[in-house]
Design goal:
Layout (H helix, E strand, L loop, with lengths): L13 E3 L9 E5 H10 L7 E5 L4 E10 L3 E12 L6 E6 L3 H14 L3 E6 L10 H15 L6 E2 L3 E2 H6 L6 E5 L5 E2 H6 L5 E5 L7 H9 L3 E5 L7 H15 L6
Parallel strand pairs: 1-3, 6-7, 6-12, 7-8, 7-9, 10-12, 10-13, 11-13
Antiparallel strand pairs: 2-5, 3-4, 4-5
Helix pairs in contact: 2-3, 2-7
Length: 249
């Protein structure tokens, strides 16, 4: 006899929803998500959809009805509980829109728990559309099969970030003027950590001195080359995840 196909199939669409999920619940999808399911994925009654609620985890659901404007799903079973995300915050200076979009997307894929946009003196941008940024994070989480969305904070100025820094969290900052090699510095510290990366023009000397004066701060080097802001944020996050995060599990 042929093997019974896996259900839900790996090709099933994946969506984050706002309500808390449970077996037997009925979920009505409308707006852009309904357009995606109905017009792009062309789901029909009985098809599988994977749902995440950022609270309980990942659920298998089945299409109950698919109309022109909405899709109704019946939640069937829990596939995975919400993941335990490593205690890592990326504090990334704002960059030009397309470059910061890339930082958001990749930080989500790499496993960051929290993303804190930072405004520094040399930032080209000083504003962030939070709704658009959250949409980028949700799309990235759906694509990479995360069950927990990264927390996205409102942009904060660097001096305020330093003033209110948590006493029990290490702050590694990528300093183009030099510092400790990043990997051994990461490995020698407590699991609660943050990485601070600069804007297109880097930190100025006053900012650099203020960061170094913070007791929890440690200057690090991300290799022998000067990296662009988006590259430093992505590379540093990946290196921390490989050293102290969940990549070794």
């Amino acid at each position: 006899m042929p093997a019974t196909p896996a259900w839900p199939p790996k090709s099933a669409p994946r969506l984050f929803v706002g309500e808390r999920l449970a077996a037997g619940a009925s979920v009505a999808i409308d707006g852009p998500q309904a357009h995606y399911l109905g017009r792009v994925m062309r789901v029909a009654e009985g098809d599988a959809v994977v749902l995440c609620d950022n609270q309980t985890g990942e659920w298998a659901a089945r299409v109950s009805s698919a109309g022109k404007r909405d899709v109704v799903l019946s939640v069937e079973s829990l596939l995975r509980p919400r993941e335990d995300v490593p205690n890592f915050t990326l504090c990334a200076a704002l960059l030009k829109k397309d470059r910061f979009d890339l930082v958001l997307e990749k930080a989500c894929e790499l496993g960051a728990r929290r993303i804190q946009p930072v405004i520094t003196r040399r930032c080209v941008a000083d504003k962030l559309n939070l709704d658009r940024a959250r949409a980028i994070l949700i799309e990235a989480a759906e694509q990479c099969a995360r069950t927990a969305l990264p927390e996205l904070a409102e942009p904060v100025r660097l001096d305020a970030l330093i003033k209110h820094w948590e006493t029990d969290r290490a702050l590694f900052f990528a300093d183009e003027n030099g510092g400790e090699p990043a990997a051994p510095a990461f490995a020698a510290n407590v699991p609660a950590a943050a990485l601070l990366t600069g804007p297109e023009g880097g930190f100025d000397e006053t900012e650099r001195a203020a960061i170094r004066a913070l007791p929890q701060a440690r200057a690090i080097m991300l290799g022998p080359r000067i990296l662009r802001g988006e590259t430093a944020a992505i590379a540093g996050t990946a290196l921390w995840m490989g050293t102290m995060g969940d990549w070794t599990a």
